[in-house]
Predict the 3D structure of the following.
Amino acid sequence: MATLIDGKAVAVEIRGVVRDAITKLRADNDLQPGLAVVLVGSDPASEVYVRNKGKQTVEAGMQSFEYKLDAGTDEATVLALVERLNADGKVHGILVQLPLPPQIDADKVINAVNPDKDVDGFHVINAGRLATGQKCLVPCTPAGCVILARRALGDLSGLDAVIVGRSNIVGKPLVQLLLNENCTVTVAHSRTRDLAEKCRRADLLVAAVGRPEMIPGAWVKPGACVIDVGINRIAGEGKTRLVGDVEFASAEKIAGSITPVPGGVGPMTIALLLANTVTAACAIHGVEAPDLFK
Ligand code: GUN
């Protein structure tokens, strides 16, 4: 049976380090990091994420600014809000919750955020910096995946990593992060031929496709580390059930280590978001950034 990778516990640990760093910044530098979260519309999953972000931001000792706009809000209004937050000295991180309604061009909004406040790491400037090995704000979910993989495997150098999924939010930035860890990286996607065979080569298998339980245990190399980014809501009797992109029951019998859903990658995303906000606040104020993880 695989060892469970307890993302929830690692996230608690990181949030503790972030909280201590903020206490010190407030005492020594009179600097209180602030995070602004913008939600357009009322997607239930997004509402839950935004509520949790706000709560954990305050618990960490930061200022939280929440903007909830109705689903029909036009693009110009969202862009004007982003401009206002860019200019607000109390705001060091800006996150616009995705997905956005269809009348709003998400790329335009993402690229309107000041790259220094882009705690999602989605701005084209941060994506370019990451791809070229420059200092940048790193997308939270893939950063969380790497931390969990390192906790399970130690040094990742030389490992065959297979990422299933090529999104801008997870798959693509994760390529860069795993290359930085000296992995040999394969990116598989919906058009990949013989996906099972590709997955079976992975020492580190990351599933980030958003398709419930699409990767069965039979596709996992014995002893591999499996990181499941998927959070899929399945309608069950009465209430909904959360499942990952990996079929957990069969995969845990083959893998060496595996993240559960929920309680794996999910909690890491917010922890890394808080860490990025501290990093952004320090950079904006010219204060040396604390080392928030290892
Ligand atoms: N929607 C799902 N994941 C994310 C994320 O990491 N950041 C933002 N802004 N929206 C999301």
